[in-house]
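Can you give me the bound-state structure? Components:
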Amino acid sequence: MVSYVKIPSHLKPSDPQGPDLLTQERNLASFDVKELTLVLYGIKDLERYHTILKIIENDPVFDKSNIYFMGRNELFEHAIKKEKRLVQLIRENKWKVEELQFAEWFLDMPGPFGAHRGMFIPTLIGQGTKEQKEKFLVPALNYQIIGCYAQTELGHGSNVKGLETTAIYIPETDEFEIHSPYLTASKWWVGGLGKTANHAIVMAQLISNGKNYGPHPFVVQIRDMKTHLPLPSITIGDIGPKFGFNSTDNGFILFEHVRIPRFNMLSKFSQIKKGTGEYINPPNQKLSYGTMVLVRAIIISGVRVTLARAATIAIRYSAVRRQFIDKDEPKKLEDGSIVETSILDYTMQQYRLFPVIAQSYACFFTAKMMVNLYTEYTKQSSSGDYSLLADLHASSSGLKSLTTTMAVDSIEDCRRACGGHGYSSFSGFVKFYQDYLPNTTWEGDNYILTHQTARYLLKTFRQVTSHKNPEIYASQSNKNPTISYILQYLNEPNQKCTAITPSDFNNHEIQLRAFKHRVAFLIANVVDQIDNQKKSWNSMLVEINRISRAHCQYLLVQNFITALHQPSEDESLRMLHNSPALKEVMTSICNLFVLHTMEKDIGDFLESEYLTTPQARLLRIQVYNLLKEIRPNAVSLVDAFLIPDSLLCSALGRYDGKVYETMIDWASKEPLNGMTLDFNPNNDTFIRKAKL
Amino acid sequence: MVSYVKIPSHLKPSDPQGPDLLTQERNLASFDVKELTLVLYGIKDLERYHTILKIIENDPVFDKSNIYFMGRNELFEHAIKKEKRLVQLIRENKWKVEELQFAEWFLDMPGPFGAHRGMFIPTLIGQGTKEQKEKFLVPALNYQIIGCYAQTELGHGSNVKGLETTAIYIPETDEFEIHSPYLTASKWWVGGLGKTANHAIVMAQLISNGKNYGPHPFVVQIRDMKTHLPLPSITIGDIGPKFGFNSTDNGFILFEHVRIPRFNMLSKFSQIKKGTGEYINPPNQKLSYGTMVLVRAIIISGVRVTLARAATIAIRYSAVRRQFIDKDEPKKLEDGSIVETSILDYTMQQYRLFPVIAQSYACFFTAKMMVNLYTEYTKQSSSGDYSLLADLHASSSGLKSLTTTMAVDSIEDCRRACGGHGYSSFSGFVKFYQDYLPNTTWEGDNYILTHQTARYLLKTFRQVTSHKNPEIYASQSNKNPTISYILQYLNEPNQKCTAITPSDFNNHEIQLRAFKHRVAFLIANVVDQIDNQKKSWNSMLVEINRISRAHCQYLLVQNFITALHQPSEDESLRMLHNSPALKEVMTSICNLFVLHTMEKDIGDFLESEYLTTPQARLLRIQVYNLLKEIRPNAVSLVDAFLIPDSLLCSALGRYDGKVYETMIDWASKEPLNGMTLDFNPNNDTFIRKAKL
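Here's the bound-state model for the whole set.
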């Protein structure tokens, strides 16, 4: 890229230099970074990582050096080029999902084909018949047709049942008529629809013989295959600029009595009989829940790398950035001269950043657990056993809500912890944050989702208590965490924390009891208000949210502790267990995650009367002790995440610590610097003209 | 603006229609909206408001209909045009500060002249001598020279003492030599520097006869007045894209031994003697603090309108948006047909949004108090009495930190409460949030600022306790809130809350005692750890932040309650006191602010043992009661803020409730919709070409 401003080449940043500072930090590590990286990725995926990264980084189409200077149109054009190149690479290298996941992660650009790969194809696979797959899936896999998934409407997001688009069966012609009766029925937010897709899976109210069978998926061709213009009676557009995701053409579409063959209703589960229009029920509703669980497990491992990325930038920059002199312990250079203190040495900075590292590792272990549970569930369900599903679905809903909100908030916390420069696009936080943000809304709004979790928790509590002999639940309690902590609470409703020194809070038993007792206490409280005090569901929504949060925080804690201590077949966990150094640092991280989470919601733990107020103060002191304990490993802990510079795309977070050289180099390339502004002070007129 | 997509004109949103819903809401109001608006603005300012708004809204240069579609360069060019037009209007209409404030608020665009008006001119006024004002201020006021304020450097933000740029006095030629010894010395983030300014006030280390006298302000011409190109030995550039503020050319500048006359050092307070280079001390350091207090008072009234703007959008859209049917109390239309429930009826939505309304009113009363205190202080200081300053400065620092962070978080909370559409630029939240964000960093980083507040609180506590007979402080305690709550705590360290029913928490005495006791308890705790347990300042930074927060929350509560009850000369307050209807609704709002604030930090109040855990539950119940109480007035409470549609620039928040019509109308104007994408499925090539 061309530089518009000549920076005096003799100028260097004042000492100490960033690279030296990061080297010093890395020398402090108590563990082998490569070893931890291997635990995080596993041998096979780490190989894939390097293979794919090399291909992506060496491909000029994927060059990001211009990315922060692009407006909406350029960004979209750029994204289209990337998508096209990606398709070629998929073919050339015969990439499977595993490889593609890495490629998409490194590309880091929500693209016009995202919904095609992420929604259109999976829906065809999941809900299409053999014939439908031949007709739609095969060309889709060859990118001969590009699809999108049209569910959300201008007037309806969360409440899918309320969708206004109709699909009426016409027996005479054996067709469906897709129609948008109102402006609010316009499909909205549909990724890839605005400019790119020529097919859509449209969720519409299935109506046959005057009866409404609720929303069902229909495949509709929306654009001409030659001219790529919208087909007759179809109105399509891009919905306009967004907080982020501007490389994607989220679109809207309106249908005016558009006819499609009956064949186009995805019919693996339910269908309409030819002529009679008789509706045939889905064999098993539960099946669809299963995939939801997996999607959410994937979102949570997404949270893990998201937090890792944010922490990497903030931690490295905090090690390089120095501000003020700490009078109590001033920092000295070799020559004895006093320099300003690295902001990573300030407790407040540690308090803001280290928990984000801990959250990332917590999500790593929980995502792992969810994938394992999902695999176990699919085994069982194939033999008709769905006992795991209810708990799994409830937990995954709440976890998606809790962790994606945590991720968004933590990115922003890390950004603000970078001071003024965090506000610059060059920080690597801006586009990153803006593109990640929708995770709190899609795949279930984070508030609405907690209702599902809470309903299950209340139901389970009622079952366990109402049952004559709760003992019979004991059998399930080892498999079902919810039943287990409810039983424990019922047997011992007045548990007290036994900690008498700050370090007692490192005791995992004390930690687990705190979270179990708190969530059971909150559930009991809500059940009482609804069942005995006859409070309405609506009046309890805030509490509903609290119990879902408490349940999922418990799961994160439980999974982290289990991962550290329970013998496991899992390759990563075995590597972890076999390395005392790793186990030690992960234990500190686990303790920080648990105690910082408790401290943030200390009110709950005090209210449940498990903790006394003096104990709350001890707990806070122990959090500060853990920050000190983790400080020497901070940089190495984020290095272990192995987020490549080409992905970080950050002047502040780069591995080599050349923060200031990069900031000014990138600034010199700002296109505005290529323009001259003619300035006439006498009549204050301005004429802007391009210099190039 | 041209529309690229033809939307079928016969389509309407499904019933009920937005305008009808808002009319229903407005009919529920228990008070006169116009009356409350008058309280907020005062008669004079409300007249100004309407005069200025008319001028701005009728001027084509200020048209915003295109704003969300602009890239960086367009946005900057647009901003320059606006600035130019604004200067003309200032001259034509002889606008004073009062008028200009409204104009800038309505324009809602951080412009290249912002620093000229906001920093350059005020600094010349505050720190220039008569001669310097003649030379620089007069042409600046005529926009013959355009200035910026160059303080922050690439390597130094918060720590001004650590600035690297030097100004060395050269007796031989009676000049200063401005120099950037390192890359990190580059001035950075300087508003209006990148492209616009031809002069800068440069903060540099004043060095004379080898002695460093610390940072001082120097006026430096940086661009040629004819060619507008940087002067020799000066490197200037725009620092590149940012999270927001992209209509402003924040810039960087490097000096290579640039000579300026001694005259250019702003010398109202301190100066260098000709030839000898002798340094003459500033008469009174304190003076500068005074203006800081005022600047922060202005920021806090800025917070008030910021919160008002966010709440207005979210509340109105929540009244229009309907989702799900509340089974316990389903909503019916006149014809008896059941419709989905307005999301404003869901407790969780009320819990997320109503506190933002309350925060806005809280900031209104506190900003008012600060301005009054500042006026009182300037009176006293003119007669040499600075007794008010310490408390005023400490409180204003902490309040700036607390309220701007509150504002940023609340904008985002309101945005997320708007579901998917909140993510669209058309929501009115995106640019709004992005441009407001820097408030948490500039005028003192929000974390660093709390140190100043805490230092004062600890010092005051030590003074009061160490003093033989604290009674003598009692005299000051009515003027000094800090001394007053410290004394109260020392006399009664074991105060307990007397509430036994939820509604008892509406008692202002109980509320005030809770906040006083909590802050004093936290301060006592920190003093003990530092003085007796010899903890280092650094190890206490998290607690430091807590006590500043606790102190400032108390001030917000105290000011709100005082404003409601204490007889006052203030025009607005008298109007409020004379209207029972207004007083009633403001009391509910005040109670919600106080109790919601308590609930959010409930841990503090439990730890201070003022509250018992059963009382914490009562308090939460009272918060829910207040939400119910406020619900009918919600829309009218935001209407009273009188934020014009032209400022909201929001499809969701417009006064008439035509949400969906506007969303689709604006989307049809997205320039991407004016492009066609030629799509060849056989070789998946893409060629984008303009249709127009």
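A couple of observations. Residues 332 and 338 of chain B are 4 Å apart (CA to CA). The domain at 144-282 of chain B is CATH 2.40.110.10 (Butyryl-CoA Dehydrogenase, subunit A; domain 2).
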